[in-house]
Records
---
Amino acid sequence: MDQLSALFATTGVLPAALVIGVLLLVVLLPALRRLVFGAEPRHALRVLLSPWEREALAALRTAVPPDWHVCPQVRVGDFLSVIGGSEQARSAAHRRIRQRSVDFLVIDAESRPRLVIELDDSSHRQPNRRRRDAENDAAYRQAGLPVRHIQPGRRPDWLSMIAAVMTQAPPPGPPADTGA
């Protein structure tokens, strides 16, 4: 054994073998991981709006006043907060709705939400989706925010819909500039 140790020490084979082993491990480990676990997930862009949503957005943009905006695909938690009740009840109510989104949110010149528009495709006929829509609608009503559900194939009178919202007082809420 002493002869073997002396051979490694004088020839440098052991340090070289360790360096080569570490390099092979560094190079082969990602390939081995891909082989065992599959390829790493990647992010890719996707189209945000369906053709029906793009058509509705174009029509809505012509119906709102120049200083109002139509915002597509807005998370409910970004415009609706939960107030009152116990901390536990508020947290539960917020968790139920925060990640849901609306097809369109119409906001006024002060960035106050004025109207939710949902384009109800066939998925909205499923029982679990109907319950979710009813829960969402109840939350919008509590906040004083009108919601309109549009069925496929219908050509709504966007101008009348927006004009009706413009004649109503904005829903109660925090001042436009919350400092957030």
---
Amino acid sequence: NSTLGTGGTAPAVKARCEMEVDRIEKQFDECVVFLLRILSFKLNVGHFPHLADLVTRINYNHYYMSDSGSFSAIPGSRPR
């Protein structure tokens, strides 16, 4: 069994962990964009005005969606 403290395995473990974190981050961003699309549609229909605060909180500083309602590229693909 390899551990982080043994020889050359630490870089490989670190690389796998970073890849997994990147995958999770991308999947999270895709799910948030999907949720915002659904919520925005419901808001535009006009039946759920109370969702406006939720959309504002999720989309803080227009990270996922512009004022005009268009979605940016998947935010997880942006450089950190």
---
Amino acid sequence: MLMLCFLMCPLLEIWLQRNNKIFKGCRANAMTTVEDIKDNSFWWMVKRAKLSGVNEDSWNNFEELDFG
């Protein structure tokens, strides 16, 4: 589950940014894309893996997380 999240979140966000650029003419900067990847991966992990002890601040700061 963890590997799927870490693989799918960046790919999905890059695909969405590509579509926005091609079809809407919008262009996001790299930092916005990275922040969106962090947010989406956090919510996927919380909802799908049902991890306890993980909060959004520690996830976004890439602190060491206790998955056990």
---
Amino acid sequence: MKATRRESGKIWSSTFSQVVFTDIPHSYPPSTTVTCRYTYSTAFQPNSRDWVGIFKVGWSTIKDYHTFVWVEQEEGQLTSQAVFKG
């Protein structure tokens, strides 16, 4: 497994993840809109049940999410975003 990182901690490429989140701030102010931007690998196979969730630090199971939104991949697009309203 390998990931390539910039000095800022943003992942440029990955050989083990099919979805890579980009432009991730260290923290978010309370009650603000959060936009999660991500890139798909060409091997990614979208599913109608795909979702992006926000988890507390230290989560241990997939059920530990705080909130989530359903997402869809537009045909031919390798980037997308999920928006969580503040």
